[in-house]
Automatic annotation (TrEMBL):
This is Protein p34. It comes from Pseudooceanicola lipolyticus. Belongs to the cation diffusion facilitator (CDF) transporter (TC 2.A.4) family. GO terms for cellular component: plasma membrane. Residues 11-202 form the Cation efflux protein transmembrane domain. GO terms for molecular function: cadmium ion transmembrane transporter activity; ferrous iron transmembrane transporter activity; zinc efflux antiporter activity. The keyword Signal does not apply. The keyword Hydrolase does not apply. It comes from the Bacteria. Residues 207-283 form the Cation efflux protein cytoplasmic domain.
Length: 296
C-alpha cells in the first residue's frame, strides 16, 4: 500500500470519527452553527471516500486503453470534492435561514463547544499532514482533501465563535449569522478548488517556475544540438508531460542525435519528478527564430 493510499484511507477513518463528534456536539446544543459544521463533515466523509478511490485508480500503470496512465483520476476527485464543498455550503445556508426564522436559546452549549473543539484539533492536525505529504507526493487528491479540511477547521472555529458569543450576549441570532458567514467562506474555498482542478483536466501548462526550469535544462544539457522549439507541457496529477522539437545539425548521425536526446531526457527527469518526455528530432534547416538556444 503506497503512502498516498494510506493517507487517503486515514482521511476516511478520521472523517468518520470527526463526524461522530460533531453530530454529538450538535445533538447536545441544538445549535444551527454546529449543525452546519456537522453537515460539512458529512461531505468530508464522502469526499474522503472519493479521494481514496481516485488515488487507487491513479496508481494503476498505463495500459492499452489508457496509454498515458490514470493520473487524471486525482484531478477528477478534486473537482468532485470542490463540488461537495459547495453543496455543503448551500446546506449550511438553508439551516442558517431556518435559524433566522426561529432563533432559540441553546442547550448545554459549553459541553458541545468542548466536543467540537476536540474534533477541530483533530481536523487541523490531519489537514497539515495531508497538505505536507500531498505536496511532497504531488497528489492533487490529497492536497484537495487537505484544503477541504482546512475549510472545515475554519467552519468549526466560526461555528464555535458564533455559539460562544450567543451564549455570552444572549443574542441567539448570532448562531445562524455565524453559520451564514461560514457558508460564504466555504463557497469561496470550493469554487477556488474547482477552478484549480479543472485547469489540470483541461491540460493547462505547468507553472511558469517549472517551465523556466525545463527551458534551462534543455538549453544547458542539449550540447550537440542547435536549438529546441515548439515546447509544450501539461500536468495530470503526479505526472508532467513534456514534448518539444530538437534541432540538430544536418550531418548528425542517428546515433549521435539519440545520445543527445538521452542526455536531455535524463536531466529533465532529475529536474521534474514523474516527467514523461517526448522529443522529435529535426534537421538544422527546421530551426525557428523563437526557439530555445542551446548553450552547450
Amino acid at each position: 500500500m503506497t503512502t498516498i493510499i494510506k493517507l487517503a484511507l486515514g482521511s476516511l477513518v478520521l472523517g468518520l470519527v470527526v463526524l461522530g463528534l460533531k453530530t454529538l456536539a450538535w445533538w447536545m446544543t441544538g445549535s444551527v452553527a454546529l449543525l452546519s459544521d456537522a453537515l460539512e463533515s458529512t461531505v468530508n466523509v464522502v469526499a474522503a471516500f472519493a479521494a481514496l478511490i481516485a488515488v487507487r485508480v491513479a496508481a494503476r500503470p498505463a495500459d492499452a486503453n489508457h496509454p498515458y496512465g490514470h493520473h487524471k483520476a486525482e484531478l477528477l476527485s478534486a473537482v468532485i470534492e470542490g463540488v461537495m464543498i459547495v453543496i455543503a455550503a448551500l446546506l449550511i445556508l438553508r439551516e442558517a435561514y431556518t435559524g433566522f426564522l426561529s432563533p432559540r436559546a441553546l442547550e448545554a452549549p459549553l459541553g458541545g463547544l468542548l466536543i467540537n473543539a476536540v474534533a477541530t484539533v483533530l481536523n487541523a492536525a490531519w489537514c497539515r499532514v495531508l497538505l505536507v505529504h500531498g505536496r511532497r507526493e504531488r497528489s492533487p487528491a490529497l492536497i484537495a482533501d487537505g484544503k477541504h479540511l482546512r475549510a472545515d477547521v475554519i467552519t468549526s472555529a466560526g461555528a464555535a465563535l458564533g455559539l460562544l458569543l450567543a451564549v455570552v450576549t444572549g443574542w441567539w441570532l448570532l448562531d445562524p449569522l455565524m453559520a451564514t458567514l461560514v457558508a460564504v467562506n466555504i463557497l469561496w474555498s470550493g469554487g477556488k478548488l474547482i477552478r484549480e482542478s479543472v485547469s489540470g483536466l483541461l491540460d493547462e501548462a505547468v507553472p511558469d517556475a517549472t517551465l523556466a526550469v525545463i527551458r534551462e535544462v534543455i538549453s544547458t544539457q542539449a550540447g550537440g544540438a542547435v536549438q529546441a522549439h515548439d515546447l509544450r507541457t501539461r500536468h495530470a496529477g503526479q505526472a508532467t508531460f513534456i514534448d518539444f522539437h530538437l534541432v540538430v545539425p544536418g550531418d548528425t548521425t542517428v546515433s549521435d542525435a539519440h545520445e543527445v536526446c538521452d542526455r536531455v531526457e535524463a536531466a529533465l527527469a532529475r529536474a521534474v519528478p514523474d516527467a514523461s518526455i517526448t522529443i522529435h528530432v529535426e534537421p538544422g534547416h527546421k530551426a525557428k527564430t523563437s526557439g530555445i538556444p542551446v548553450l552547450g
